[in-house]
Amino acid sequence: MIGFLGGTGLEGRGLALRFALAGEQVVIGSRQAARAQEAARAVSERGAVEGVSGARNGEAAEADVVFITCPYQAQTGLLEPLADALAGKLVVSTVAPLAFDEGSAMLIDVPEGSAAEQARRLLPESRVAAAFQNVSAVDLWSPQRTLEGDVVVCSDDEQARLQTMELARLIPDLRPVDGGALSAARYVEGITALILNLNRRYKTRAMVRMLGLEPSERH
Q1: CA atoms of 59 and 82, how far apart (whole Å)
Q2: In degrees rounded to 5, what are phi and psi of residue 164?
Q3: What is the DSSP string of 113-172?
Q4: Whole-prediction pTM value?
């Protein structure tokens, strides 16, 4: 089962939908059980899928693999009380630390270097990886939309990195790319701000594709 902490937003619901379409059981977490259950119903109806449930974040943290899909500003308050529950688990950060000024996205300075590295500090016993920051939440939530792009996966734990790459392969036409150490997540998160601003300027939804990679480099 895959859990989504702070999963009632478009990113959490979109990823939950895509993994449910791939046959995975998913649980959407929220501070309020009613909001989580409402989001689960929306996912089930959107994709005509089963195996989608909603629960409080603490219950969602009991899943085998857990995604962080909350806004950056809520991350510390969300993760600190769940550190024990998430110990030993693969935790995937999808968070990009962003602020907005008159519609333009800006990267927030994170003392640890990136939102993913902050998550690792808050969850010292978890296997933290970073991925999916550059995938359009709007497109994730549109099941008829083909997602053609790369998912850069970063982690200091090789098995966590490889496991996250296998999860990315469950979503058709997304290609996982081994991004190396978790410290590289700061660059991936920064690209999100650039993509959002380009999308606003060109009125589109761009994604990342790394050119020139040989098959042996895709792991």
Answers
A1: 10
A2: -65, -35
A3: SSHHHHHHHH-TTSEEEE--TTS-HHHHT-TTS---EEEEEE-SSHHHHHHHHHHHHTST
A4: 0.95
- Parallel, antiparallel or unpaired: strands 127-130 and 2-5: unpaired
Which tens digit of pLDDT belongs to each residue from 11-34? 999 999 999 999 999 999 999 999
Q: What is the number of other CB atoms lying within 10 angstroms of the CB of residue 147? A: 18
CA–CA gap between residue 96 and residue 191 (Å, rounded): 9
Task: For residue 101, count CB atoms less than 10 angstroms from its CB and return exposed for 0-12, middle for 13-18, buried for 19 or more.
Answer: exposed
Which helix (DSSP H) or strand (DSSP E) does residue 194 occupy? helix 185-202
- The phi and psi torsions of 198 (rounded to 5 degrees) equal -65, -40
> Which DSSP string corresponds to 34-60?
HHHHHHHHHHHHHHT-SSEEEEEHHHH
The count of other CB atoms within 10 Å of the CB of residue 125 is 10
15-36-84 Cα angle (round to 5): 80
Question: Is residue 124 within 8 Å of residue 80, measured between CB atoms?
Answer: no
Separation between Cα atoms, residue 38 and residue 16, nearest integer Å: 13
